[in-house]
Amino acid sequence: MEIENLLSLIKAVSESELTGLKYEENEVKIHLTKKQDQVHVVAAGQAAIAEAPAGGPMAAPAQSATVQKEEPEAAAPSAQSIGKIVESPLVGTFYTAPSEEAEAFVSVGDTVKKGQTLAIVEAMKLMNEIESDYDGTIVEIYVENGQAVEYGQPLFCIR
Questions:
Q1: What positions belong to coiled-coil segments (predicted)?
Q2: Are the C-beta atoms of residues 54 and 40 closer than 8 Å to each other?
């Protein structure tokens, strides 16, 4: 896919009320999601992510396959006062355990360390581990096993 076509897709999503778009051409797969006037581009098969402000030029691709937030935003204002929020870094299906027979990675009341796996979000047949950004105790799990999640959706509250 040519960069001009990619920029056109980003601009179209930015200017629309869409929150996401998946596009496949030959062996190139692109997944665009939008949150608060910013478009996130995930290109599968090329292991690259780029972020572009809505309607703006595209930034240089990052080498990571996920986008992680450091600070919680106003998405869950009541939870901000009681703990730190772990948000979904991508759109997909939320799973609490590595398989149907296995125990959940964490439960309410469990103590977790930074970098510990909390759950999995499946996107485009890829299992993406969701790791804790914080040390603390799981106060609340906002999502049910098998539920679809959006980019930036609160998943866990850690205090």
A1: none
A2: no
